[in-house]
Amino acid sequence: MSTTRLKQGAGAGAFVLAAALGLGAAAVVPAQSAVVAAVPTATTTTVTVQDSTVAHGEATRITVSVDSVTNGPKPAGKVELKVDDKSYFADLTNSGKVDFDLPVLDASTTPYPLVATFTPADAAAFSSSTSAPVPVTVSKDGTTSTVTARHNKMKRKIVAKNTVTSDHGQVPVGKVKFVLRRNGIKIAKTVETLNTAGVAKAKFRNVRNRGDYKVVSRYLGSDNFTASKGSFKITR
Fold first, then answer.
1. For this UniProt entry, which residues form the secretion signal (predicted)?
2. Full-prediction pTM beyond 0.85?
3. Could you give all domains of the chain from N- to C-terminal order, each with its CATH number?
């Protein structure tokens, strides 16, 4: 009786055993090698803020850091930063960090939560991750009232102007009160609205008597801006 020799793999032993039992070669199915899928490296995403309390319109830097839990190569991909129900996106290189500027937010007694989510460029290499929320509080911005006035002798009127500016560059909105005094006594008042440039004007007519006049103007403030006051003197 001839003997069949197998030269490859552990399947040869199975074939010989099957032949000895009279099962034949067709009954032998070689075992398949198990395939183990690679597991992406876990990541952590962290948000840090330069200043956790800012005024309306004040600039501050937000830094998002993404690291692998193995402290190996830095992940690359995209970062989404959510602020006040709006999303801002940036590419993350293998530096592991990306900076955002805080958008202009309304003043609020309730802090705004900042949350960042990392999405890897290579999902097979790294996993996505989301940061814990980091609060930022936004207060009202300070303002300055710059008051000027001039007397028109021919038309017997005083024209006053209040230019209201904020500490951080946003244009204030709202109402401005003007009061005209003569020799310390209030003789007229009016309330005007700031225009789109942050300027309010008032006209006081029938200014006939001589004396020391003073225009006192107060910006009344708004949801995002504090009140401020200024004055201007005229002698006629």
1. 1-33
2. no
3. 43-139 (2.60.40.10), 143-235 (2.60.40.1930)
